[in-house]
Amino acid sequence: MKEVMNVSLFRNDLNTQLDKIEISEIRQFDDATSSIPDILKLTLGEPDFNIPEHVQLAAKQAIDDNFSHYTNNAGIPELRQAAANFQNQKYGLHYQVDNVITTVGASEAIAAALATVLNSGDGVLVPAPIYSAYSPLIALNHGVEVRINTRSNGFVLTPTMVEAAIKDHPEIQFKAVVLNYPNNPTGVTYHKDELAALADVFKKYNLWVISDEIYSELTYGATHTSIASLIPEQTVLISGLSKSHAMTGWRLGFIFADQALVDQIKKIHQYWVTAATSIIQKAAVEALTNGADDGLEMAKQYIKRRDYVYHEMTNMGFEIARPDGAFYIFAKIPAQFNQDSMAFCRDLAQKSHLALIPGHAFGIEGEGYVRLSYAANMDKLREAMTRLQAYINNADNEQQLH
């Protein structure tokens, strides 16, 4: 047998922007805890529901129909129309086919949007803590990120915070702001009056709004309002089917924007991925038409889970900004634990076999917190709360002994 040589071909003349980014701490921590025996992981934003059966059948039918060839770069017109109709009917928007690009998940949509609007040195406002994907994508596109710490206001961005950040950095030409609501990791969302106030300040400074509303169907209480309903000409609306239809692995997302901007984003999308998978596009038509309310059925279960976990963790001494959407609890580590979030989560995983995500994974603004995903069934959540309570009790006992 011919011996295979393990020769490193690494070179040091790669894209220097790569020095500014790392593999997501979320994935790193999830991978690191996977080898712990009997580990109970509430780490990833992964719905535990199966994809609705009628959506699965639509995918199987597309295979049987040999729908396996290239589609339009922006997606099949039938799907783009269905996506536009969904947004229009649900959230009072006014999109047409030419306002939509079908992407390979919301992640590609975010990346393509940022790559389109940013020139080297452009500033991007990012309310934090926030999902870890945005910062690396801004860096890779040579943007300048300015983070706004929202902890003092229950993780809600205000116009005052926006204006203060801009005035604190007169040397930066700000081009865009990133919104993500309902928010990952906090589960906090924005109400219409809050969005109206933000829209006014975004208009004042002529900012593109990259609005990631992937969790819009998982909003509890008040109806979700899209900022695209207030400033459509400045908004790049990001959505998809990963959360609303539990289609995370099928990688199907959308960009909605003014047609002139869509035409520019399409250039990048075309050369990056050509088009989303043909079979999944057919299934997505079914999801957005006959399955338009599938996410609402899942939301009913998420509300029960949220209420249970919120109650249990609050009683254990965690401080939590009550989440009104998504499926996350973002909890402040009780004061008696003199550890950073990574040390706390490592110790919890090793001693109680329960994996949560350290708040630092969402930026330094998340330090001192942990994120728990309640996209798991009630049996797992009850066991998780039992393990967490035991960990806290053991820590309390150890402190008393010392």
TrEMBL record:
<feature type="domain" description="Aminotransferase class I/classII large">
    <location>
        <begin position="38"/>
        <end position="387"/>
    </location>
</feature>
<dbReference type="InterPro" id="IPR004838">
    <property type="entry name" value="NHTrfase_class1_PyrdxlP-BS"/>
</dbReference>
<protein>
    <recommendedName>
        <fullName>Aminotransferase</fullName>
        <ecNumber>2.6.1.-</ecNumber>
    </recommendedName>
</protein>
<dbReference type="InterPro" id="IPR004839">
    <property type="entry name" value="Aminotransferase_I/II_large"/>
</dbReference>
<dbReference type="Pfam" id="PF00155">
    <property type="entry name" value="Aminotran_1_2"/>
</dbReference>
<dbReference type="InterPro" id="IPR015424">
    <property type="entry name" value="PyrdxlP-dep_Trfase"/>
</dbReference>
<dbReference type="GO" id="GO:0008483">
    <property type="term" value="F:transaminase activity"/>
</dbReference>
<dbReference type="InterPro" id="IPR015422">
    <property type="entry name" value="PyrdxlP-dep_Trfase_small"/>
</dbReference>
<comment type="similarity">
    <text>Belongs to the class-I pyridoxal-phosphate-dependent aminotransferase family.</text>
</comment>
<dbReference type="InterPro" id="IPR050596">
    <property type="entry name" value="AspAT/PAT-like"/>
</dbReference>
<keyword id="KW-0808">Transferase</keyword>
<dbReference type="InterPro" id="IPR015421">
    <property type="entry name" value="PyrdxlP-dep_Trfase_major"/>
</dbReference>
<keyword id="KW-0032">Aminotransferase</keyword>
<keyword id="KW-0663">Pyridoxal phosphate</keyword>
